[in-house]
C-alpha cells in the first residue's frame, strides 16, 4: 500500500486548531491539578480527620478508575444525577483535572515528606508559624524535588487529553478522526497525529528534565 | 561561705534575672527518661557550655529551651517568665532566641542573602531594604560578604555554618543556642566557625553551647555543665571543670576525650 499525505496535509489548519485546543486543555489541566493537588495533599497530611479520610478515599478511587470512565460519567451521568450539564470542553477539563489531581496530590505528599525535619525546625526557631514554614521553606523545596515526577504528569496529561475526542471536544485527536474519515486516509491522518504528539511531548519532557538538572541542588537540604 | 555558693555569686551578672533558668526540668520520650531533673541557669552575657557523652541529653535540654521539645516536669524560665503555652507565645519567645544546628539547616532554595533576610522579613515584617542592609552587615561580620548571592550548595561546611549563625543573628536574639555547631565540619573549617562564636562571646552575647570542642569550652565558657545519662554530674567555672574536676564521671569523660588539662 502506498502512503499519500496530501489530503491530510491540506487540512493542516484544521488540525493545527485541534492542536491548539489540546495544548490549552493540557495547560489548564496541569495548572489546576497542581493547585488542587497541593491543597489535597496538605488537607490529607495536616487536615482534620473528617477531611483526610474522604481525601484518601478520593485519591485511591481516582487511581483505581480509568480516566475515560470518569470523563463519560461526568459528561453523561452527572447531568442526570445533579441536573448540572457541562459543555464538552469543560466536562473534559473537569474530568482530567479530577483524575490527574489525585496523582499530583500523591507526588506532592511524597515531596513534602522527603524534606527533612530539620528544615521545619530551622524555620520554626526563627519564629515562623507552621503555615509560613510550609509556604516559604518546605513547599518550594518539595516542588523542586517533584519536578521529574511533574514532568511525567505533564506528558500523561497531554496524552490523556485525547480521550476528550469521545465527547466530541474538537481537539487534535477528534479532528484527526474527522480528517481520517473525510479523506479516507486513516493511516496518514493518525501518523501525522502521532508525529505531532511526539513533537510536543518530547521537547516538553526534555525541557523539564533540563530545568531540573540545573536547579536540583536548590531542593537538596 | 562555701566555695560553691561563692562560685555562683561570682558568675557574670549573677545579681540580674537569668536569661534562661532550668528548674528541675524532666523530659521523657514515652517511658524513656531523656532528662531526669536538671537545674541550671544562664546569666546575661554568659557563655555556658554543655558537655558530656553522646546520648546524655544535651541536645534535648537545648531543644526544650525554645520549646522544640515539651517538658514533662519542672519549669523553664526565659527572662524570668515561664515559657508561654500558646503557639503565638512560643513564636514570640523563639524570635528572641537564635539557634544553630549541627547540620546547618540552611534553606537550599534561597541564596545566602535570602537565608538571612527571610526571618526578619517574614516574622518581624522588616522592610526588604532594611533586611538586606542588616544581612549584608552580618555577612561581613562572619567574613562572607562575597557570598551573598551564592546558594548554600556552593559553600563549604564552615561557610554554611557561618551563614547559619548570621541567619540566627539577623533576628537580633537575646540568647544563642548552639547544638554541636562544628561536629559535622571538616577539621580544617572548624576553626573559622569557632572564631566567629568566640567573637560573638566577646561582644557579650549570651550563649548556650553544646560542644565536644574542649579547648573552645575551656577558653570561652564562663560556666560548664557536665551531663551524664540525663542528669547534671557537675557544673562550675570552666577552670574548675577542666583543671580540677570534682566528679569521677567528669574525669572519666574528659580523659576519654584525651583531655589532659
Ligand atoms: N525524638 C526522640 N525520641 C526518642 N528518644 C529520643 C529522641 N530524641 C532523643 N532521644 C533519646 O534521648 C537521649 C538523649 O539524646 P540527646 O539529647 O540527643 O543526647 P546528646 O545530645 O547528649 O547526644 C538519647 O538516648 C536519645 O536516644
Ligand atoms: Mg546532641
From TrEMBL, chain A:
The chain crosses the membrane at residues 12-43, 55-76, 88-108, 142-169, 189-212. Residues 19-205 form the ABC transmembrane type-1 domain. Keywords: Amino-acid transport, Cell membrane, Membrane, Transmembrane, Transmembrane helix, Transport. It comes from the Bacteria. GO terms for biological process: amino acid transport. It is found in: Cell inner membrane; Cell membrane. GO terms for cellular component: ATP-binding cassette (ABC) transporter complex. InterPro entries: AA_ABC_transptr_permease_3TM, ArtM/GltK/GlnP/TcyL/YhdX-like, MetI-like, MetI-like_sf. The keyword Ion transport does not apply. One of its GO terms (molecular function) is transmembrane transporter activity. Signal peptide: none annotated. SUPFAM superfamilies: MetI-like. It is a multi-pass membrane protein. PANTHER family: GLUTAMINE TRANSPORT SYSTEM PERMEASE PROTEIN GLNP, MEMBRANE COMPONENT OF AMINO ACID ABC TRANSPORTER. Belongs to the binding-protein-dependent transport system permease family. HisMQ subfamily. Part of the binding-protein-dependent transport system for glutamine; probably responsible for the translocation of the substrate across the membrane. This is Polar amino acid transport system permease protein. It comes from Neorhizobium alkalisoli.
From TrEMBL, chain B:
Pfam families: ABC_tran. One of its GO terms (molecular function) is ABC-type amino acid transporter activity. InterPro entries: AAA+_ATPase, ABC_ATPase_HisP-typ, ABC_transporter-like_ATP-bd, ABC_transporter-like_CS, MetN_ABC_transporter-like, P-loop_NTPase. It is a peripheral membrane protein. Keywords: Amino-acid transport, ATP-binding, Cell membrane, Membrane, Nucleotide-binding, Transport. It comes from the Bacteria. GO terms for cellular component: plasma membrane. Transmembrane segments: none annotated. SUPFAM superfamilies: P-loop containing nucleoside triphosphate hydrolases (SSF52540). Residues 20-254 form the ABC transporter domain. Its main location: membrane. Signal peptide: none annotated. Gene3D superfamilies: P-loop containing nucleotide triphosphate hydrolases. Belongs to the ABC transporter superfamily. This is Amino acid ABC transporter ATP-binding protein (PAAT family). It comes from Neorhizobium alkalisoli.
